[in-house]
Write a structure and sequence with these properties.
This protein is of the alpha/beta class. It is built from ten helices and eight strands.
């Protein structure tokens, strides 16, 4: 029996995923978590086969959490379940150790297929992401490839409307450090304000208007 921990701050989303997953006779949801702290505790106690992780949590950014959960339980695989279907979310999640990435807009059968593929030791991305990656622009045309990994994290959170204080809390870094990263990334992107970051994120498909 495969044991899965679900991490999502919306109860109705967790219930939907749980119902879908538990239709499979050899998979069980061992714990449901609303935030990063609960996820860390559950993984430490259960050491599940797999964590299904939402990237947008109220108390932390899901990207660093991918690495942290794997460090706690190295044999646990992580599949990201997210509304974000574009770069750099996908590449960052995979770079940090996620074994799969499935959007919340994917067909239900893709979620189950993805979980099974990952539990079999394979990497899986849902078909909508695969299509986007096949037609995405080259790195030279994407301004976010000028940024460091941390600068990309700060960019995404600021573009979503997070304040520097909220960004610092989500990433577990100091607020002064966020201001430094913000100044650096704005210089690299030629942005003058958070509104410019939001517009860039919309233009490049990182956020939906």
């Amino acid at each position: 029996m495969y044991r899965i921990v679900l991490v999502d701050d919306h109860a109705i989303v967790r219930e939907g995923f749980k119902s879908l997953i538990e239709m499979e006779s050899d998979i069980e949801v061992s714990a449901e978590c609303r935030n990063a702290d609960e996820a860390v505790e559950a993984v430490a106690q259960i050491a599940p086969d797999l964590v299904a992780l939402d990237l947008s949590l109220p108390d932390a950014s899901g990207l660093p959490l991918v690495e942290h959960l794997i460090s706690i339980s190295p044999n646990t695989r992580v599949v990201v379940l997210s509304m974000h279907e574009s770069e750099p979310y996908v590449s960052e999640a995979l770079r940090r150790g996620a074994s799969g990435y499935v959007t919340k807009g994917a067909a239900p059968e893709e979620l189950v297929a993805g979980l099974r593929a990952v539990m079999a030791g394979k990497q899986f991305i849902s078909s909508d992401i695969a299509r986007r990656r096949a037609i995405r622009p080259s790195k030279e045309l994407d301004p976010l490839h000028r940024l460091t990994a941390r600068e990309r994290e700060v960019f995404l959170l600021l573009a979503e409307g997070k304040t520097p204080k909220q960004t610092a809390a989500a990433l577990g870094i100091g607020q002064k450090t966020v201001y430094i990263h913000r100044a650096n990334l704005m210089g690299k992107l030629g942005a003058g304000s958070e509104l410019d970051l939001y517009r860039l994120a919309i233009e490049r498909g990182y956020l939906k208007a």
